[in-house]
Amino acid sequence: MTQLHGAIFDKRQCELGEGPFWHPQLKRLFWFDITQKKMLGRNGLVADEWRFDEMVSAAGWLSEQRLLIATESRLASFDISSQSIETIVPLEEKKPLNRSNDGATDRCGGFWVGTMGKSLEQGAGAIYRYYRGELRKLFGGITIPNAICFCPLGLHAYFCDTPEQIVYRLPIDGEGWPISEPEIFVDLRSTVLRPDGATVDGDGNLYCAFWGSGTVIKFGSDGLERERYLFTGVNTSCPVFGGEEMQSLFVTSAYEGLNECSSSDGVTFMMQTKSKGLVDKKVQLG
Questions:
Q1: 71 domain-assigned
Q2: Is residue 283 part of a domain?
Q3: Contact at 8 Å (CB) between 69 and 30?
Q4: Are the C-beta atoms of residues 139 and 125 closer than 8 Å to each other?
């Protein structure tokens, strides 16, 4: 079933809106405009914006006022109030033509982040996991890493390399590390759909945004399509659950690459669901 969904949650237009993250303590949504080097936030009528010296793309929470931020060259601790930033660990600091992209926190408190070439160089990126002081490279040869999310019980991770048009499911152990090779979860190669960011609800359904189609598709834990939601922004980029009851689905979008930009392109949407999302774990630094 295809339905038009999603009122505009925040009308600020992002060139490359990505990485929405719901802070469970602040009850506030954060997201990024990667190419414009800024993070945005909103809680009710209160809208915020933070600017950085380099591109930023994804976040997890460390405390009420501190976030883990993925930047071009590092994972860093960022204080929301003072705006102070401190390096946790370098991230491809010897690859200045790369930047971070999609990222999320797993059920153990490990933070996964993908990297990619700033000019979309084929196979230039990778996917990493940071957990208790260790940054480990999990996969290389990635062009556009996306759809990083985790099943409710923490038994599997999901990810994709957008140009491949395949969403993979990866078995992981009790500490969140991969224990076997990824398997195909959703194969979209017979379609024009390009998977971007994704999230999972408490029942194990995966919600994936599709770049260039204004669409979010809900897949069951069996990989089969359940529902399809349409938005007025063309480049839907990433969904995440949030809100008081974790039943609001927020969806970022972008106007990057569009010849004609409407007032809905690049905004952040919100739709109410009957499903309930999962609260993010605190990132474990050590």
A1: yes
A2: no
A3: no
A4: no
Q: Read off the pLDDT of residues 94-139 as tens digits, 9 standing for 90 and up.
A: 999 999 999 999 999 999 999 999 999 999 999 999 999 999 999 9
Q: How much is the pTM?
A: 0.96
**Tally of structural domains, the chain:** 1
Q: Is residue 277 part of a domain?
A: no
Q: β-strand 38-43 against 28-33: which pairing, if any?
A: antiparallel
Classify residue 280 by its DSSP letter. Answer: P
Residue 35 belongs to some domain of the structure: yes
How do residues 26-83 score in pLDDT, each as one tens digit?
A: 999 999 999 999 999 999 889 999 999 999 999 999 999 999 999 999 999 999 999 9
Known active-site residue 102: no
Output the domain CATH number for residue 81: 2.120.10.30
- Burial label for 103, CB within 10 Å (0-12, 13-18, 19+), is buried
> Which of the residues 10, 33, 106, 196 is marked catalytic?
196
